[in-house]
């Protein structure tokens, strides 16, 4: 029975509606990609231009990174989709644990001075 | 969820989660990615804490060049797109397209890796920044090198899958495997977003 799992399919079981839905999703993914390219360009331009003060540039590019992070996770990695409650919980846990670890490392290493 | 499948009915809409094994792999892989997030966060924290400790060696803003990082970013970002498109081909049971897109992903990944090796080579031989030169050097090579190791692993993962399943078509056995490799590849891209921002752009931008 389980041998069937290794057999290829001659056709797809997608209904016409499902196919349309997938094609629409695909377009949204490409739009998300264009958006990410745009954000990346923005970040590089902000840094390359000397006339913008670092006091503005640094928070700005960090914000862009967070937006791109969300785009990647929710669109490319499908976290926004249904059936992704547990993956969301796992990633959130990872981020929650990461945050104090990150802050502690930056602060403590800064204090002890290697 | 049974182990049997009626092949004549056609490939289910979400082949990566059509079997219990696929569902378990999917869930387990996300646990792994949550853990990876924490591991990378500790490396980022270490780098941010130590990056001013140059010990008389070269500083970050002396070494880094914007064009190189830009090319690497574009390569990895595009490979993430081709990998996402490969998964849509998989859902439509278009094996040929999926393979072609995966090959493109791998080529882009190797290009990225090549630039990274070139970058490290330049820093070591012409920039004067070795692994033990300074705290900045150690934490920089650890963080970016760890990411590079992930890229290498991901590339060999893709290649292994493509060789193993070069002639089988999309089955319910290999669909979850391709899907997870693609998730892993996106995660690598996510980490790179923070590397190019926190490591490169912040150093060049003067923070």
UniProtKB/TrEMBL annotation, chain A:
Organism: Salibacterium halotolerans
Membrane topology label: Multi-pass membrane protein
Subcellular location field: Cell membrane
InterPro entries hit by this protein: Cyt_c_oxidase_su4_prok
Name of the molecule in the record: Cytochrome c oxidase subunit 4
Keywords: Cell membrane, Membrane, Transmembrane, Transmembrane helix
Stretches that traverse the bilayer: 30-49, 55-77, 89-111
Family annotation (Pfam families): COX4_pro (PF03626)
Any one of the GO CC terms: plasma membrane
Organism phylogeny: Bacteria, Bacillati, Bacillota, Bacilli, Bacillales
UniProtKB/TrEMBL annotation, chain B:
Listed GO biological process terms: aerobic electron transport chain
Gene3D superfamilies attached to this UniProt entry: Cytochrome c oxidase, subunit III, four-helix bundle
Pfam families for the chain: COX3 (PF00510)
Keyword annotations of the record: Cell membrane, Membrane, Transmembrane, Transmembrane helix
Subcellular location: Cell membrane
Transmembrane segments: 27-48, 68-88, 100-121, 141-163, 183-204
Membrane topology: Multi-pass membrane protein
GO cellular component: a single term: plasma membrane
GO molecular function, one term: cytochrome-c oxidase activity
Domain called Heme-copper oxidase subunit III family profile: residue spans: 27-204
Similarity-based family: Belongs to the cytochrome c oxidase subunit 3 family.
Protein name: Cytochrome c oxidase subunit 3
Lineage, uppermost ranks: Bacteria, Bacillati, Bacillota, Bacilli, Bacillales
